[in-house]
Amino acid sequence: MRLIISIGILAISTLPALADRQVTEDERAKLVAAVQVEGCSGGKFEFDEDDQQFEVDDAVCADGKKYDLKFDPQMKLKRKNLD
């Protein structure tokens, strides 16, 4: 019984990770340009299927700090949060 419960908890805990996908090369090029417009560079690029937005985690910006950036499908900045 404990094994079944453990497997169920594990399955549920991994579901949010399935909501993200890797970006295409075309999307990556557009995201790099959008991130640069914000005065930032680098980071990990993903597309969140649930929220229909692009996410850039740990981008380093002009102030030397890391930020998580969120862009809409047209590559317009929606949110910039200090990491």
Characterization of this structure:
- The chain is an alpha+beta fold and about 80 residues long.
- The protein has one domain.
- Helix content is about 30%, strand content about 35%.
- The protein has two helices and six strands; from the N terminus they run H-E-H-E-E-E-E-E.
- The protein has helices at about 1-15, 25-35, and strands at about 20, 40, 45-50, 55-60, 65-70, 75-80.
- Strands 1, 2, 3, 4, 5 and 6 form a six-stranded antiparallel beta sheet that branches.
- A hairpin with a 5-residue loop joins strand 5 and strand 6 (about 75-80).
- The longest helix is centred in the N-terminal third of the chain and has 13 residues, at about 1-15.
- The chain is globular, with a radius of gyration of 16 Å.
- It starts with a helix and ends with a strand.
- The mean pLDDT is about 90.
